[in-house]
Amino acid sequence: MNRRLFSKLHRWMTIVVIMGILYSIPLLSFLQKTGSYSFYENRMLAEAPVFSVSSVMDGSFFEGCEEYLSDRIYKRNRWMSAYTAAHLHLLKKPVVNDVVVAEDLLLTPLTPQPPFLSYGDLGVRAADDLRRLKDKVESVGGKLVVLGVPEQYSILRDRYPFPLFNNDVNLTAIETTFFNSVAQAGIEAVNMKPYYERSSDRTLLYAKTDHHYRLEGAYLTYSVLCEKLVDLGLNIRIIKEEDFEYVELPNPFLGSRAKKLIGRSPVEEHLSIYKLKDEIPFTRCDNGVPVDASVFALPNSDEAPVEYLVYMGGDVAETVIQTSRPELPDVLLFGNSFTNALETFLYTSFNETRSLDLRLYHEMGILEYIEEYRPDVVVCLRYDLEYLLQSGNGIIE
Amino acid sequence: MVFSSPVFLFIFLPLVFGIYFLVPSKQLPLRNLVLLCFSLFFYFYGEQRATVVILMSIAGNYFFALAISAQKPECKRKRQVVLWSSVLFNLGILFYYKYANFFFENLNLFLSEPVEVAHIALPIGVSFFTFQGMSYVFDVYRGLPPQRNILNVALYISLFPQLVAGPIVRYETIQSELTSRQESSELVFAGLSRFVVGLGKKMLLANTMGEIADSIFQLDFAVLSPGLSWLGAAAYAFQILFDFSGYSDMAIGLGLVFGFHFLENFNYPYISTSITEFWRRWHISLSTWFRDYVYIPLGGNRKGTGRQIVNIALVWALTGLWHGASWNFVIWGLYFAFLLIVEKLVLGRVLEKAWRPLAHLYSLTMILIGWVIFNSPNLEYIGHYLSTMFSLNIYNPIAPGYGWFYIQQYKIEWILCFAFSTPLIKIAVQRYQKNPTFEVLHSLSVIAVLLVSILYMVNTSFNPFIYFRF
C-alpha cells in the first residue's frame, strides 16, 4: 500500500476509534437500565439532579450531573472489576481498593501513627460510663458483663506483610487501658483476645475476608461468656460442641473486605451455620414485628454469594427472641455487628434474649431500656477499636 | 469541569466536537462562535457567579486595546496612560479576588482595630485569564493590530482548553489563528493523541503520585523518617509535573484539534543541570510572560548587576505570589530568586564545568526543597519537613521501612514517572515514527492509554488538578 495512503488511513481509523469511544460510552450509559443500589460499594447510586435556576446558579445541578454520570457509566461494575483484577493480578499491588492483600488473608490498611499518650483519661471516661450502666443494671437486680472482642485486623495484626503498619502499640495500649480502667471501676469484664490467641490457627475463628469473627469464633465467645455468667451465679445451660454440628455453606462468602475487591478476591472462604441436635423452639421479633423464627438468613441457591448477613439477617435495631423457658434468666445484649453471630448461640441459654444495636435503635437510651425491661443479665459487647469511644454503642445515656 | 472528569470527556467534548465540525470550515466566525459559547459554558459550569468577572475582563481589555490603537504612535504618553490604566484594571481584578483577604489578614496584624473584610471566593483560573488579558493589551501596545470584533477577544481570553489552568497563551501566538486557521485530519489526529497522552499523565501518574505525596505529607512528624520525607517530596515533584504538564498536553492537543497552535509549556524540567535551566523548562508560558512583560521592562540585566539582582528578586516574589496568596508561595519565589542570583553570580560557571551527574543532583535537590516549600501549609510545617529531610536519625521505630511500601505498591508508576520525565520516550518516538509498524503501535498505545485512563476515572475519586487553584 502507498505509504501516504497508509498513513492517512491509519490516522482516520485512530480518530474514528477515539471518537467512537467518546461517543459510545455516554450513549450506552443513557440507554442502559441500572438499579439504584451499588452492591459492592454498599451505597445508593446518585439520582439524576433536578434542574432549576437555583440549582444551576449554586452549582448543585452540575455537581449532581458529575455524580450521576460517574455512578451510571456504562457497565460500571465491569470497569471496576477490571481495574481491581489488573491491580491484583497484573500489577500485584499489596493494597488494592483499600484492602491489604496478605497471604491467604485480607486486612485493612493502616496509616502509621505515633503512640497516643493520653489514653488514661479516655479509659477513666469509658469506665465512668460503664459504672453508671452497672449501677442501673444492679438497681433492677441484674448483672453487667462487659465483653471485649478484637476486630479481625487487630487479632491478626502479626499477619501484616512487611513493611505495612499494624498499629500494635496503640491497639495494645487501648486494650490495656480499657480493661485496667474497667477492673478499677469494679466492673465484670471478659477480654476475649487471650482466648482467641490460644487457638492454633486464628483464621479458624476469624474470617479471612471480613472484619468479624466466624461462627466458630462466636461460639468460643459464647462459651467463655456463659462460663463467666455461671461463675457470677447465674443458672444457665451452656450448649457444648457435642450438642450441635457445624454445617459449611457451599456458597462463596463475600466478606466486607472481599466485597471491596468487587468479587475478585484471591482468598476464598465459606461460612458455617450450625444445627442443634435438640431444637429449642423460639419466636423472634425484629423492631417489634414478628418475623420467621430463625437465626440464620440463608440464600436461595447454593451458588449465590453470601455475606455476614447470614447471621441474624444482619444488623437490626432491636431483636427479641423468646424461648418460653421461664426458669432461665433474661439477657440483654447490646453492641455492633459482632453481636449477630453471638446471638445465634446466646438465645439457647436464656428465656428471653434481647439484642440492641444503639447505632440503629433510637427509641430510648440504654439506661431507660434497662429500667423498662429489667433483664437479669446485661452484656455490653465492645470491639477493640471502640473500647474508648463514646459513639455508637459506646453512648451510655 | 476538569478535563479528566466523565462529564467533560463524555458529554462536553463529544458535543463541542460534534457541533464545531458540523459547521462548514469556511464559516470560521460561526465556528469561533460555537467555541466561544462552549468556552463560556465551560467556565460557567465551574464558576456560576464569577462568570461575570471573566466577562468584565474581556470587555475591559477589549476597550483598552482599542483605546491604545486609537492613539497615534507618536502620542507615547497617552498610550502609556491607557496601558497603565489597563494594568491597574487587570491587577485590580486580581488583587480583589485573589489577594484582598491575604492583604487584610496581614494588615490586621499591625492594626489595633482590625479591618473586617468578608471572605472573597477565588474564581477558578483568575490568574490565567487575567494574564492573558494583559498579554493582549501589551501586545497591541507593542504594535500588533487589535481585534475589532469583541467576540474574537472573548474567544482568545476564554478559549476552554487553556482557560482555567493554562498554558498562558500570548496574544501574539494565536492572533492570526483567531481569524484564519487551517484544520486538518493530521491536526485532529495529532491533537487527539496529545490530549490522550495528557489524560494518561494525569490519571495514571499524577493522581497516583498525588496519593503518595498526600499520605506522606499528612503523616505525623513522629512517624516521618528522612527516607520517607524525600520519597514524599519526590512523589509531589512527579505529581505536580505530570498534573500540570498533563493538563498542558491536553490543552495543546485540544487546541490542535480546533486548529490553534499553543506554545509548549514544559520541556523535561527535571533533567536540568541548574535552576536557571529548570526555569527555562518549567511552566515556560509563565516564566516567559514575566520575563517579557516584567523583567525586561524593569531593565533586565541592562542596568548593572545590582539592579539585575533587584529585578530578579522582584520578578520571583511576584511569580511566587502569582501561585497563591500565601507567604509560603512568596518564600518559594524568593528561594528560587536566591538560587538564580547565586547561579548568575558564582555557581553558574561552576555548574557548567562540574561533572554532569553532580549538577543534576544539585538541581534535583534544590527543586525538591522548592516543592516542599510549595506544598507546605505554613512556615512551621516547612521547617519541620525540611529538618526531617536532612535529619541523620534514619531509623524510625514506629513504622520501620514504611517507605518501602510506597515503592512496592507503586513500582510501575515510579518507573513510568522516571521514564516520562526524561526525553527517552520522545527520542524513541521520533526515531521510529517513519516506520509503519511503529505508527500502528503508536496509535494502539494511544487507544490503550485512553481506555486505561477511563478505567481509572471510573474507579478513583482522587482527581484534583493542582493548578486549578491558581
Characterise the protein shown here.
The complex is a heterodimer of chains A (397) and B (470). With 397 residues, chain A is an alpha/beta fold. Chain A is built from twelve helices and 15 strands. In chain A, the strands form four sheets. Chain A has an eight-stranded mixed sheet, sandwiched between helices. A three-stranded antiparallel sheet of chain A has the order 3-4-5. In chain A, strands 1-2 form a two-stranded antiparallel sheet. Chain A starts with a helix and ends in a 14-residue tail after the last strand. Chain B is an all-alpha fold and 470 residues long. Chain B has 20 helices and no strands. The model of chain B has no long low-confidence stretch (mean pLDDT 90). The two termini of chain B are 15 Å apart. In chain B, 71% of the residues lie in helices and 0% in strands. The chains are: A alpha/beta (397), B mainly alpha (470). The interface between A and B is large, with 50 and 51 residues.
Largest sheet of chain A: 8 strands, mixed
Reported for the largest beta sheet of chain B, the result is: none
| Biggest sheet, spatial arrangement of strands of chain A | 7-6-15-13-14-12-10-11
Sum up the overall morphology of chain A in one term: elongated
Secondary structure class of chain B reads mainly alpha
Number of helices of chain B: 20
How many separate helices of chain A? 12
The multimeric state of the shown protein is heterodimer
Quick one: how many beta strands of chain B?
Answer: 0
Residues in helices of chain B, as a percent range: over 70%
| Largest protein interface, residues of each chain | A-B, 50 and 51 residues
